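Reader question, answered in our methods column.
A reader sent in the components of a multi-part assembly and asked whether the whole thing could be modeled at once rather than chain by chain. We filled in our standard form and ran it. Here is what they sent:
COMPLEX SIZE: two components
ENTRIES:
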Amino acid sequence: MSRRAETLLWVAQRASAAVLGVCVLVHLATIIYAVQGGLTGAEILARTRGNAAWAAFYTVFVCAVAVHAPIGLRSVLAEWLGWRGRSRDFALIAFAVMLAGMGMRAVSGVIG
Amino acid sequence: MSTLQVRVWRGDAKGGDFQSFDVPRRESQTVLDVVTFIQRTLDPTLAYRYACRVGMCGSCAMTVNGAPRWTCRTHVDKVAKDGKLSIAPLRNMPVIRDLAADMREFFDKWARAKGRFRGATTRKDDFAHVSPQSDARRLAEAGIECIGCGVCYAACDVVAASPDYLGPAALNRAWTLVNDVRDTDHARRLRAVAGDAGCLACHTHVSCTERCPKAIAPTAGIAGLKRAVSRAALKGEW
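And here is the structure of the entire assembly that came back:
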């Protein structure tokens, strides 16, 4: 991987961290609101189903996770297991796809 | 006169162990004084390195009671309150023998980080006029007093985990040159310090800044390099 690509990965991780900071706060605030209000699962689904705003928010959340986590794991694998090179990067691409797939499946379950 | 109980690491690249010595306690005694006493009085085969004895040359750094320190300016009073000293070679460097660590890779990394000044003028040209108050010069000045002792490098956990990582000293040097308006090698230097083995690998543990005997903050310089290489990569400068 080129120096530029490695640097852009680092920038992507920092940018996705900034997005995640906002998303986690909104997500936590939503959970606390829902719990305090005594909403049931059915009542929550009634609010989220077909709601384009929540769909957009959680899609962004999932994308940020799928970008952020594999790049961080890339350093962890190098430093803790000594796993570097293309095999690691291909494995992490697969991990990113898995995260995105599982996340979007959850989003479609709540919103769709 | 009281006595210091000193454990000194003895061995070479293949391995070794600590050897105990009793050293007379003296007023204003430094750790380097202790090592020198052992070598001159108790065991002349002890290998260690020093030169100036006044904190200028950066030769005498060792691991003292678990932490890297310049031994010539480290008073026993400060580090051995219980009268016990443990002295070992610097971490993250191969051992040559006893307390002498091999600093070749450490300095090779300075070269890899393009730590050499490259200007565009000759001795026939006028002096460059650089305001000491300019932002760039102030940033350069903040890191310019590095003596190359290797304390920051030995303190760095990222170097321990990733032996290719350039390390705080080489990156601090690069940062001083990035802020040197006379230097003409900026683009190549930024490329040299980018990537997995460069400034982006720093986890901001701040061990280098905490341990630097010259009170330099390599962590701040590395943060500056991260911003600079990010801008360069986004602009496609290399």
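What stands out: Chain A has a mean pLDDT of 95. Residues 66 and 96 of chain A are 5 Å apart (CA to CA).
Send us your own complexes using the same form.
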